[in-house]
Amino acid sequence: MKTQIVDNKVINLIDFQKSKRLKTEEVATRLGISTSLLYKLYKGERNLTDELVEKIQTIMFEESLQQSGQIERVRKQKIEVNKPDALIVSIDTSEVLEEYINTHGNRFTRVDGETIIEVPLLNYEAYARYLDEISEARIYESEKLVTFVVDKFDPAFHLAFKVYGDSMNGGRLNDTPDKAIVLGREVDKNLWFDGGLKIDKYGYGWVILTDRNILFKDIVSLDKSRGIITCHSRNPSPEYSDFELSLREVHQVFKVLKRIF
Length: 261
Fold this sequence. Notes:
A hairpin with a 3-residue loop joins strand 8 and strand 9 (214-223). Strands 1, 2, 3, 4, 5, 6, 7, 8, 9, 10, 11 and 12 form a 12-stranded mixed sheet that branches. This protein is α+β, with helices and mostly antiparallel strands. The protein is 25% helix and 29% strand. The protein contains 6 helices and 12 strands.
């Protein structure tokens, strides 16, 4: 029988779950993965991705701060999830302000109970340069930055996109018109076939980056055996018909979280 080797970070996560008396489903939800994938990680059948390592470290780090009562007193300090000892806590409580910059360069700031993310805006004109930069450094620097109010700090890569056209505007509340700006959170490639591209009938859609262009669509089906997704537009006009797209042609997929009109 082949012995599976479990990463030390996974062992730490198992110990963390036991010490906090958490259910496996709760840990999987906090990590943003399926329960089945978490079981595979625990058994050593799947390897950790960089994104999951960051999430594990962030969860444990925030938990330690909450226990010590320090999380509400952090001000204007850069928190690197891979260097928790770099955190400096100020005892000045006149203005509660926390700042966190993830490894992708996304800046999160918490002010007056709200968490604000600052992200680069990617447009069609800069797409070729973006593909070059992101393939080398995994960090994209844009001349224009936009901000959104989000729920929490997040180690995943976030990017903003400008919408061109009305293909995702069918007149409903969650539809998005031309010239809107949307915030996307990248889905790790290792999760595409394991719940990452879950069909969401009530969301805002997905931004899909291919070899040639930027697509803003709904994903209405995933054929795992062929590696094919079906892309759907919300505008009922005949020109916006559904089409299939091979994931081999896709560089990145972003789940749309927020919009600015």
